[in-house]
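User: Can you recover a sequence for this backbone? Please restate the input before giving your answer.

Assistant: Of course. Working from this structure:
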């Protein structure tokens, strides 16, 4: 297939040689951590077609399906004697690079790096095989400087990275207000300041930014610093749902080990079901996993509001991914991509049917 390439001007700001910064992830920084952690396997458990499956995700609440599924052993239960090896990432480019190199087989990742990884490989390296989370993105501002939308003009608002999921959403929203901003420089009626989520709370506290369009838990960290939620991005979408985290797989691994992929998807579906049935226990489990990974749990005034703003679901919300790609094109950050084939929901729908749940759609972007 032929797929559109990111604009040449954006290639000059690559964060990794193989992948430009355009359409990166919504995580913290860009380094990966090979956890080299294998989950315990029950004695006598039967192996599937692979000895192990390598799973990647972010130490981030929007990746709680992976955090909780690993923490509670829900994935391992479905995999039997096939062990899980985990690796965590702080941004999309490093996770896509790991998938391309075979360092991971399956990953939890945001829509923008999935789009970028798919188009950069001419549709050959990955498939989106399921959904994981919706929501969890907010525009938080300094209430002393910004009391309403009109007060944003002339102010400095942070997004995580040039062309990342939140950056694209904010640029699209700015355009809808009738304001002008140069997408690459961030200069215009509103100054868009690309700031790593790790340092955004400090930048806000110092007054160097007036607000931020960011994912959780960064948004709730800003609120804890005295910020006010001016807009929840979910209010801009039909049914207040939009994809923030998908499940992707290496096409090679999917072809060679469909039984393992199906088992991981079963674990994902059962984890989401457990999260939604036990929200407080699930929140505590996710926080415990974050503490293991980062050495520090999130305080209640951060994790409580952050958790409430995220919806965990199996549907990849394919139509919203297509819309997000259109927003990037509209902002001038991406040529119109050919996303036909980015989804293969066959195994997910098989799992959902077995669980007595409804089928999900790929919005016409299924594998050929």
């Amino acid at each position: 297939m032929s797929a559109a390439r990111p604009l040449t001007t954006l290639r000059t700001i690559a964060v990794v040689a193989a992948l430009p910064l355009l359409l990166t992830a919504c995580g913290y920084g860009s380094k990966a951590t090979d956890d080299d952690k294998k989950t315990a396997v029950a004695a006598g458990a039967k192996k599937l077609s692979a000895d192990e499956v390598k799973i990647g995700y972010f130490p981030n609440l929007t990746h709680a399906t992976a955090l909780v599924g690993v923490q509670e052993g829900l994935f391992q239960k479905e995999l039997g004697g096939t062990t899980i090896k985990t690796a965590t990432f702080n941004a999309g480019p490093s996770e896509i690079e790991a998938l391309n190199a075979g360092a991971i087989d399956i990953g939890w990742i945001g829509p923008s790096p999935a789009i970028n990884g798919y188009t950069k490989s001419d549709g050959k390296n990955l498939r989106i095989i399921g959904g994981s989370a919706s929501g969890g993105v907010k525009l938080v501002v300094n209430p002393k400087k910004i009391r309403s939308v009109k007060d944003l003009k002339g102010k400095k608002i942070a997004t995580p990275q040039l062309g990342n999921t939140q950056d694209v959403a904010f640029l699209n929203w700015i355009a809808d207000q009738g304001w002008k901003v140069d997408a690459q420089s961030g200069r215009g009626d509103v100054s868009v300041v690309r700031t790593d989520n790790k340092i955004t709370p400090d930048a806000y506290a110092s007054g160097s930014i007036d607000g931020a369009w960011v994912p959780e838990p960064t948004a709730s960290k800003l609120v804890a610093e005295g910020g006010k939620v001016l807009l929840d991005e979910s209010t801009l979408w039909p049914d207040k749902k939009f994809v923030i985290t998908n499940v992707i797989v290496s096409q090679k691994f999917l072809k060679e080990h469909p039984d393992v992929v199906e088992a991981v998807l079963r674990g994902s579906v059962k984890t989401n079901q457990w999260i939604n049935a036990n929200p407080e226990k699930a929140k505590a489990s996710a926080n415990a996993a974050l503490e293991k990974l980062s050495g520090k749990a999130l305080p209640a005034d951060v994790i409580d509001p952050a958790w409430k703003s995220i919806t965990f679901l199996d549907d990849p919300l394919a139509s919203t991914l297509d819309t997000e790609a259109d927003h990037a094109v509209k902002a001038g950050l991406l040529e119109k991509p050919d996303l036909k084939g980015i989804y293969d929901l066959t195994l997910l729908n098989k799992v959902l049917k077995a669980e007595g749940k409804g089928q999900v759609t790929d919005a016409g972007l299924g594998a050929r």
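That completes the design. The longest helix spans residues 258-277.
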